[in-house]
Amino acid sequence: MAATQFDLVADFLGLTEELRQRTKWPKRLITVTVPIRLDDGSTKVFFGHRVQHHLTRGPVKGGLRYHPNVDLGEVAALAMWMNWKCALMDLPFGGGKGGITCDPRTMSMGELERLTRRYTMEMIPFIGEDIDIMAPDMGTNEQTMAWMTDTYSTHAGRLIPGIVTGKPLALQGSAGRTQATGHGVAFLACRALNKLGIKLTDATAIVQGFGNVGSHTVYGLANSGVKVTGVSDVSGAIWNPRGIDTRELRDHVAARGSIAGFTEADPIDPAELLTQPCDILAPAATDMVIHKDNAGQLQCKILAEGANGPTTPEADEIINARGDIFVIPDILCNAGGVTVSYFEWVQNLQRFQWTEREVLTKLETMLENAFSRVLAFAERNKLSHRMAAQSLAVKTVAEVKAQRGLFP
């Protein structure tokens, strides 16, 4: 998907073959073995990956995920998308992504700590606060980042908080980082409603996923007056056309661990939830959930992509042909996380903390600027929003590569 999208953008921009090749391929693809001792005394070897797509515009930035399906190809695609995301948001970063092939749900805290520390040690030659800065992703959290900070800092002999972002506040994390991605999705979805002339209090939303991104998307939309009618997570999906009390849902999930058993809404097949009528559909979980078989059945006015790569190229063609869905592409819609990660990194370098209000205000300003640039570029060049966003991003990276030239 990532390579296909890039080729379409490169054709539109008319990149030379040299720039096309230099811009497309990642700088480094790193795979390491991560042996650890399990709680039962046995030893198991895991495989860890890290892809650094480009360091042309600055150190690479991107998450670290723990998931059974992690492989080098997935990590490389996510690093490429992160590169375009940073360029679109005008952040001084290239794109990076990392992952370990494991199932964190079946591992103890001790095993996860040993896994994280060993992976960090294996990565030390390739990371640094001016080389590669990791962050939480699927299956990882601020505790993971705390272990990485400690491992790297112990090796260096002093605290280096800028080695990762998404840390606990006590370790010089940033206020607003936890809710940043979901806050950004909700903010941009509301901006799209404004563009379409739909009142926030008249709008409805369906959010796929109730993890960190999805839950804060739900809270952000509800706090803006949007009625949330459907939510799903790994346990299933719920639907209530009269609206879901998001505070009750939050309390239920805190007590039960999932949305399963929530009695204030009806169970519904997760696939069917995506095609229910709504103003905002926010896929905020996994990739490729909007595909050629369901794109024609969508009944939303706005597709707010909280996840990375939720819409396949085949689905894109169908949605573009329909012309009745306002797409907020992933590299713009979920850019809140990396933007506030940038703020955290800057605070760490300055040894100066900002308030949550300062962080979220700066975030909304940067998202608004990128949103306006994408819409203007799309209108001027008669492009889809996804094509416009990716064209602006790839153009930025390609221009810097051309300016820096090719070292002999």
UniProtKB/TrEMBL annotation:
<dbReference type="GO" id="GO:0004352">
    <property type="term" value="F:glutamate dehydrogenase (NAD+) activity"/>
</dbReference>
<keyword id="KW-0560">Oxidoreductase</keyword>
<dbReference type="Pfam" id="PF00208">
    <property type="entry name" value="ELFV_dehydrog"/>
</dbReference>
<dbReference type="Pfam" id="PF02812">
    <property type="entry name" value="ELFV_dehydrog_N"/>
</dbReference>
<feature type="active site" description="Proton donor">
    <location>
        <position position="97"/>
    </location>
</feature>
<feature type="binding site">
    <location>
        <position position="181"/>
    </location>
    <ligand>
        <name>NAD(+)</name>
    </ligand>
</feature>
<dbReference type="InterPro" id="IPR036291">
    <property type="entry name" value="NAD(P)-bd_dom_sf"/>
</dbReference>
<dbReference type="InterPro" id="IPR006097">
    <property type="entry name" value="Glu/Leu/Phe/Val/Trp_DH_dimer"/>
</dbReference>
<dbReference type="InterPro" id="IPR006095">
    <property type="entry name" value="Glu/Leu/Phe/Val/Trp_DH"/>
</dbReference>
<comment type="similarity">
    <text>Belongs to the Glu/Leu/Phe/Val dehydrogenases family.</text>
</comment>
<dbReference type="InterPro" id="IPR014362">
    <property type="entry name" value="Glu_DH"/>
</dbReference>
<dbReference type="GO" id="GO:0000166">
    <property type="term" value="F:nucleotide binding"/>
</dbReference>
<feature type="binding site">
    <location>
        <position position="341"/>
    </location>
    <ligand>
        <name>substrate</name>
    </ligand>
</feature>
<feature type="binding site">
    <location>
        <position position="61"/>
    </location>
    <ligand>
        <name>substrate</name>
    </ligand>
</feature>
<protein>
    <recommendedName>
        <fullName>Glutamate dehydrogenase</fullName>
    </recommendedName>
</protein>
<dbReference type="GO" id="GO:0006538">
    <property type="term" value="P:L-glutamate catabolic process"/>
</dbReference>
<dbReference type="InterPro" id="IPR046346">
    <property type="entry name" value="Aminoacid_DH-like_N_sf"/>
</dbReference>
<dbReference type="InterPro" id="IPR033922">
    <property type="entry name" value="NAD_bind_Glu_DH"/>
</dbReference>
<dbReference type="InterPro" id="IPR033524">
    <property type="entry name" value="Glu/Leu/Phe/Val_DH_AS"/>
</dbReference>
<feature type="binding site">
    <location>
        <position position="212"/>
    </location>
    <ligand>
        <name>NAD(+)</name>
    </ligand>
</feature>
<feature type="site" description="Important for catalysis">
    <location>
        <position position="137"/>
    </location>
</feature>
<dbReference type="InterPro" id="IPR006096">
    <property type="entry name" value="Glu/Leu/Phe/Val/Trp_DH_C"/>
</dbReference>
<keyword id="KW-0520">NAD</keyword>
<feature type="binding site">
    <location>
        <position position="85"/>
    </location>
    <ligand>
        <name>substrate</name>
    </ligand>
</feature>
<keyword id="KW-0547">Nucleotide-binding</keyword>
<feature type="domain" description="Glutamate/phenylalanine/leucine/valine/L-tryptophan dehydrogenase C-terminal">
    <location>
        <begin position="174"/>
        <end position="405"/>
    </location>
</feature>
